[in-house]
Amino acid sequence: MRNTTKTVTTVLAAGALALGLTACGAGSSGDKNGALVVAASPVPHAEILNYVKDHLAAKEGLKLEVKEFTDYNTPNLSTQDGSVDANYFQNQPFLDDFNKKKGTDIVPVVTVHLEPLGLYSHKVKKADELKKGATVAVPSDTVNEARALKLLESGGVIKLKSGVGNEATPKDIADNPKGLKFKELEAAQLPRSLDDVDAAVINGNYAIEADLKPAKDAILLESAKNNPYANFLAVKKGNEDDPRVKKLAKLLTSPQVKKFIKDKYQGSVLASF
Predict the structure, then answer these.
(1) N or C of the chain: less Cβ packing under 10 Å?
(2) CA 1 to CA 41: how far, in whole Å?
């Protein structure tokens, strides 16, 4: 996936230079009658958007173009510079951290679904079967690493220091009875690490892409109850009232999309509306 990410990003950058894109270039922010261009992770985000495009958009008079990205940085940067009109791939803690670090002003429009984060292993069937000194791979980005550690804490594998938030790292572990070692990897690489580590905490979208079934295969899985990590449609601040964005927000939270998510993902992705 790393090569794919570089290719997508390079092509986008090259296209921007070749066309001399301005802030509203590859997107169509300046043309409210043009197609709404949305950046999305391939699974499940782009799949959900393509369902809307193929089955619902025409009736609402919405032209929709879906651009797939396999990394967690390009969609926000492209939304900020106008290369795309919107994105659909992230949760609020991730966006808050991104805006703070990158100086962007991306805002959520409507919450659509939750992909429960899970712990997976090719070597054990239960989290408490992890051996002393076992290596666990976790996402390297700030928010998802903290989220992974919270998942391990919820399963009784480790205990974090009191009061740690969305910037927790292995240094914030207060109790590690098994003496686990942590390997930080880019989120997209985690499924491929399963043969090299004892277990890995994998984001839902990458788990599904790797043919893992979170509801069935995870040996620890986040609860959907009061979960702050639901994914949403997002735009650059000021574009929330774009009529096309409003139409897409309405369709993404329609009964048809809720049924599509339920039928297609069988509990591995949960509608949040």
Answers:
(1) C
(2) 12
Kindly report the length of the chain: 273
Radius of gyration for the alpha carbons in the chain, expressed in angstroms and rounded = 19
Query: Kind of pairing, strands 159-160 and 173-175?
Result: antiparallel
Decide if 147 contacts 140 (C-beta within 8 A). Answer: no
Determine whether 103 is exposed, middle or buried from the number of CB atoms within 10 Å of its CB (0-12, 13-18, 19+): exposed
C-alpha torsion sign, points 39, 6, 10, 94: positive
Report how far residue 47's alpha carbon sits from residue 230's, in angstroms, rounded to the nearest whole number.
17
In contact, 158 and 258? CB cutoff 8 Å = no
Contacts of 102 (CB under 8 A, 6+ apart): 76, 77, 80
Query: Which residues does residue 181 pair with via DSSP β-bridges, in sequence order?
Result: 135
pLDDT in tens, 177-213: 999 999 999 999 999 999 999 999 999 999 999 999 9
Question: Whose CA is closest to 37, among 224, 257, 271, 242?
Answer: 242
Separation between Cα atoms, residue 21 and residue 23, nearest integer Å:
7
